[in-house]
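Hi Y.,

Following your request, here is the sequence exactly as I used it, all 559 residues.
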Amino acid sequence: MRYNVIIPIVLCAQGIVLLHGAQAQQKEIQGRFFAKKAYTPAPLPKYAEVKSELPSPIYDDNPLWVKTYWKAWELGFRHFQEPAPQSGFVSQFIDAAFNQNIFLWDSCFMTMFCNYAYPLVPGISTLDNFYAKQHEDGEISREIVRATGVDFDAWINHENAPLFSRWGWPDLNDSSNPDRRTAVTYKGRTPPSVNPKLTLDALDHPILAWAELEHYRITGDSSRLPEVWAPLTHYYGSLQTYLKQGNGLYVTDWASMDNSPRNAYLKGGGTGIDISAEMALFARQLADIAQILGKSEEARQYSAQADELAKLINDRMWDQQRKFYFDLTLDGKLAPVMTIAAYWTLLANVASPAQAAALVAELKNPDTFGRTNPVPTLAANQEGYEPGGGYWRGSVWAPTETMVLRGLENYGYNDFARDIALKHLDMVARVFEKTGTIWENYAPDVLQPGKPAAADFVGWSGIAPIIYLLEYAIGLKADSLHNRLDWQLQPGGRRGCERFRFNGHVVSLVAEPQPGAVKGERITMQSDGPFELRVRFAGVEKQFSITGGKQDFEVYANK
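Below is the corresponding structure, written out as C-alpha cells. Let me know if you'd prefer a different format.
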C-alpha cells in the first residue's frame, strides 16, 4: 500500500523506457457510471471557524484523550482540499497526507471519522473523485495523482499486457529492488479475454461499499446509495474478472502489505486471505445496499456469491491444526506466515463462531497478537517481526485496527473490542503527549511511532482520537437506520458529547455519576429532534424516547 521512493521510470518487457508520468492520459471516457461530472467551487471549511460546531467530547477520566481528539481535527483540517484545475475531480476531499497522490484505501478510512462532522466537512465526498476516475471496465486505481487526476503512472498497464504486478512480491530482503515485474499466472481458469487497464499493484483492498455503509449508518444519508450503486457493482465485477483465481479465491501482491514476510508466498498468483475475505465483504455489502434500494433479486445474488466465497475460504484457507487463516501459494499450499490479514474474515462474517473464538484467542496471546499495543500486523513469533514497528512487520495501523474491532463486534466480542480500542487510543495519546503530533502507524511493543512512520498524519490516523474516543471511551454508537443512539455507559467520571451528530440530529448529552450506595448516572439531554436512546449501564438496559428539547434521565445498576 505504501512506498517511500517513487520510481517514475519503468522498464517494459521489451526494454523500452516509459516516461509517461502525469502526461499519460487514458483515451476512454472515465467516470461513466457516476452522475456527478463537474466540481462546483465552494469555500473550504476552516478549523477556527468550524470548531465550535464540531462534536465536543466530554471525558473527565482522561483529558489527554480529549486533547488528542482536537489535535486530530486540527491536523485533518489542514488536509481538506479543492480539486486542482484540470484534474477532473468533482468534489472537495480530505487528502491522505502521504505524498502528492490520493489513495483509495486511505480515503475510505478517513471518511469514517469525517462522518461525525457531516455535513460540515468534506468526508464521504472524497470518494466521488475515485468514482469520477473509474475506467469503463469498472477498474478503479488505488492511487491517483492529485494535481492531474491521472492514475499513478507505474500502475497503468501501458504495455497492454495480461495482469501483472509492476513491483511484484518482494521477500524480506528484496524490498528495495524496483525491477520486480511479474506476470500473474491463472491456474485452473481461462485468463481474461481483455487485458486490464491497471496493474495488480493498483487493485487491492476494495472497501468502498464498507465506507458508504458506515456513512449511511452514522449520518442517515441514503441519497448517496443510488448514486454509487452502479460504480460499486462495476468495480466489483472488474475485480472478479481480473483478480479471481481458478480456485475461486483472489490474488494480491505487495501493495496489500508492502514489506510483509507473507509476500513471497503469494508470488505469481497466490491468493490472499485479506483480498478474498474483502471480496466476500464486498458482496455482502452490495446485498445490503440492494436491500435498502429495493433490489431484492440483486440482493439475493450478491448474498449467494458471498456465501459461496466464504465456503471456499473456510475449505481452503483455514488451518485446522494452527486454528488460523492463511494465504495460499499458487500451488494451493497454505503459506506459513501468520498476519493480521486473517481478521478480515471476522468483518466479512466468513468465520464460524468456533473459528472466531480461535482468532480471538490469538488476539489475546502475548506471543502473537496480544502485544502492549494490539494489534500488530505481523504475529510476534514470526520471522521478520519488529518490536519497533517496521511498517507491515509489526506496526499497528488505524485501518487494520478498525477492521479488527468491527469484526469482533460482528461476533459479539464488544467488551474485548473496547479494550483493544482504548489501549490503542491511549498509545496514540501518550505518543502525542511526547511528540506533539499524530503518526502514520505505531510500534506494538514500545511507546513510540512505528519505524518508519510519517508525522502529522491525519490521514487515517485520525480514527483513534476521534472514533475510538466517541464510540469506545464515551460509548456512543449511532444506528441511523433505526433512528437510534446506543450509549454503552461505563462507570467513571462525567462523560458525554456536546453537538454529537447522527441521522441529521445535533444532540448534546452528558452523564454524571450520582452519589449513593447504588451505582447511578444522571443523563442530561438536549436534542433538536426525536429519536430513541438506548442506554446500557452496569448490566441494565433502558430505552428512552427523545422528543426534542431538553430532557433528564436517571439510570441505576439495579433498576
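The radius of gyration is 23 Å.

Thanks again,
Q.
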